[in-house]
Each structure stands twice: as structure tokens, then as C-alpha cells.
Amino acid sequence: MLVRLGEVPDLGEQNVTDATKTDSCLIPTCISDPKSRGLCHSHYQSAWNAVNNESTTWEELEEHSLAAPSTGTGRKNHILELLEQRRKAT
Ligand SMILES: [Zn+2]
Predict the structure, then answer these.
(1) What pLDDT is attached to residue 38?
(2) Torsions phi, psi of 43, nearest 5?
(3) I want to staple 40 with a disulfide (CB 3.0 to 4.6 A). Which of 12, 28, 32, 84 is the partner?
(4) The pTM is what?
């Protein structure tokens, strides 16, 4: 079994998961609005290209916080959202 020293979760890094930026692209240096998977249009395209030519996978990108899971990233079913609003309105 592989024991990887130096990768023990550090309590001091707890904030990292809390600070899920939803207001800008996941790429740290990028301040564009995210379009898909937490990435802006151009970074999403780069990621998509990389996945498409099998340089990486979405899973790997997600693992390294370079992409958000496809569910729950603002791509909610629009009809369901509207329905939810109407149910609340009554
Ligand atoms: Zn970006």
C-alpha cells in the first residue's frame, strides 16, 4: 500500500474547500465569469479540447479543482427552476 508522506490533510487548509468561488473562473489568474463547469468560456474550451483529445479527463480536472462537476454549476434545469418559483409563489 502506498503511503504518501506530505499529503496528510492539513487542518490549516480547511478554508480551501469553503472558498468555492462561484463568481469567477476556477483558473486562479482568471477573473472572467464562469460559463460551464466553473470555467469561463475560453478556459472551458481549453479544458474541453484537452478532454476531447484525451490529454486529460473531466474527472482529473475536477480532482485538481480545474473544473467543477457538471451538476449544480448554474446549469440547473431551467424549467424546473421556473416551476420551483411558481410553486413558491402560490
Ligand atoms: Zn477563465
Answers:
(1) 92
(2) -70, -35
(3) 32
(4) 0.55
Distance 43 CA to ligand 1 centre (A): 5
* CA 33 to centroid of ligand 1, rounded, Å: 7
Domain coordinates in residue numbering, the chain: 11-89
What residues pack around ion ligand 1 (CB closer than 5 A)?
25, 27, 30, 32, 40, 43
**Which has the closest alpha carbon to 39: 13, 15, 65?**
65
CA distances from 61 to 47, 53, 80, 81 (A): 8, 14, 28, 28
10-residue mean pLDDT profile of the chain (90 residues): values are 57 45 83 92 95 94 92 60 82
Amino acid at 71: T
